[in-house]
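Blinded run. Sample ID left blank on purpose so nobody reads anything into the name before looking at the predicted structure. Input follows.
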Amino acid sequence: MPVYNKLVRDLIPDIIAAQGKQYSTTTLDAVAYAVELRKKLWQCFGFLTTRLIQYVVW
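Blinded prediction complete.
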């Protein structure tokens, strides 16, 4: 089974289970959640920055 280590929204595990797939989740404490959320925000920021640069160049 692949390992993704991603933050997921509330209903995603239910959707995966409804498809008959196996998964595992971990509930993070506040500090670990803040760390992972910061990583996700920087990932999104990088994506948006790249898109903006592409838009300006074109």
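Unblinding after everyone has recorded impressions. The chain has a mean pLDDT of 88.
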